[in-house]
UniProtKB/TrEMBL annotation, chain A:
Keyword set, alphabetical order: Cell membrane, Membrane, Transmembrane, Transmembrane helix, Transport
Domain of life: Bacteria
Pfam family for this entry, one: BPD_transp_1
Membrane topology: Multi-pass membrane protein
Keyword Transferase: no
Name of this chain's protein: Sugar ABC transporter permease
Xref: InterPro entries: ABC_transporter_permease, MetI-like, MetI-like_sf
Organism of provenance: Billgrantia sulfidoxydans
Amino acid sequence: MVIQNADRRMQVYGALLLLPAAVLLGTFAYLPTVATLVNSFFLPGFRGAPPAFVGLENYAMLVEDATFWKVARNNLLYALGTIPTSIALALGMALFVNARLPGRGLVRMAYFTPTILPMIAAANVWMFFYAPQIGLFNKLLGALGLSGVNWLGDPGVALTSVIVMTVWKEAGFFMIFYLAALQSIPPELKEASDLEGTSRWSFFWRVTFPLLMPTTLFVLINALINAVRVVDHLFILTKGGPNNATNLLLYYVYENAFSFFDRTYAATITVVILLVLAVVATLKFTVLDRRTHYQ
Amino acid sequence: MYYPVAVGGALTDVIDGLVAEFENEHPDITVNAIYAGNYDDTRVRAMSAIEAGEAPQLSVLFSIDLFDLLEQDAIVAFDEVIESDEEREWLDSFYPGLMENGQIDGQTYGIPFQRSTIVLYWNKDAFEAAGLDPETPPENWEEMAEMAAAVREASGGEQWGVMVPSTGYPYWMFQAFAFQNGHRLMNEEGTEVYFDDPAAIEALEYWVSLAEEHEAMPDGTIEWGTLRQNFLEESTAMMWHSTGNLTAVRNEASFDFGVAMLPMNTQRGSPTGGGNFYLFKDTTEEEQRAAMTFIRWMTDPERAAAWSIETGYMGVSPASYETEALRNYVEEFPPAAVARDQLEHATAELATYQGGRVRRALDNAVQAALTGQMTPEEALKQAQAEADAALRRYARSR
């Protein structure tokens, strides 16, 4: 009897501890998700009229929507372009500024600066870097005697231009995590391997890199989230143009919801994005997690 | 009140100054003026505020948002709020051309504020250097192409002849080309568009030919936001842009420049553009009256004149051009009257139900043609199909 009472008390205690997180998650994650799913089965109402139930019509529209497929493809390219590059660059920069070099603090700060700039401000600066006649990049190319490129106005290079800016912006942020992880690696390992006469190369691949795996996983997830989430710079740089060459999924959702006032179609696209992300998350938990070595 | 700035420059300071002055004169009314980005961003801010149950009493939004705002049931007609004959007179005091985008079914929903037409800015020094008469801007399409090519050649490829922006508001520029070719892109009810008409295709072909054939305009799209800088740094001899840039160009240009009406083909023409005042629903009668007081104060001829001088946007009423301030200004700086004079040849800006989607379809078509992804005909056919689909969806939801 006494034991049962204590047991129940612990249960209530546990539930109470969970409550704040549950309320927050429920309000800001689960409820909107369900509402989005429900919305995707309706057509927007006209002049305050209630929305009309149309079943899967919005999904049928999505399947036929060439823009959606183009945007999805863009987003895939964008993810492939930004994620590996910014992670590799971040690791490289972290290894560099972790070594003893003069002015280390300054270099670290320089690498990290893009991260603390607001995206909108950074994008505004880059817009002038990219400007065809008056921009920095084309002036540099001009000095080398090369004719310039219309960085944001040529559908062939516009998405790459956006990717380059994203990598510039993100690498410094990921570097910080790698730097912290590098500094938490016990120095004895390095000393021991020096005694054994291990080459720097194999020390990095056999010791440092595996120990960095949890960080890599963390950074990877973050980069992935960002690849789907970050859209601010599109507002400034390209508005998704020219001809949707740089349009990405979330920007397309925004356009539908706020420029086209079509909330229900925006909801439909969101549901599809959520489904894809759910698949990715499952892969992460089942495959990647098992291969990661935690300290 | 939310308001947009689409042309850059220190317009927020001007607005803040005006609001402070108004509050001084009307201590019982508080105006909270929030700069909210470009036209699209501002609409989003206003609409989200409504959604959150904190509707603004008034806002400056895109003049062509009318159909969408009606669809969202967000605004009230000024006719419902005005009380006296005097106010009715005020409602009739604006240029009819500027009212076109703000009226439907005999009701007025939008009061012109930061209104514009597209004008041609040209660099007189560059014209002179190319052996052209610096005082004569191109009259028609042919001349513009020739003059632009002449500048390009004379500068040894250092300077472009003409730039027409093709990001931001490509449909707007295209509408000018189409109208100059005698073609209107939509019906008045906002339910049909005519993008793939031969006259429209011809207009887009001409635009594309400026780069392809005459080599007088750069390839690819031209950025709306940096174009003024391009002009100021003399990397182009001519630009098409909103008259709202006029004062900024005047203040910063280190060369002699002129402003002209856009060149014509079968007729002159430019769509009007810019932002209107709207009154929102879900506000008390008292708030609506206060909002009216503010809007009337802001559009008063003297104020409209001052606003026009400080920005380059048009004086919105004939009376504003009769004020001493604007009369003197126009005398001393004639380009300030070009947008007004062009009003005679102006057409309403592209506005339909499902406006965002329809405009976006046209934007994409223009960009696809300019970047060589599609021929003008293919691109406009596709835009027509997309716009038709959007309008059908609208018809269903109605």
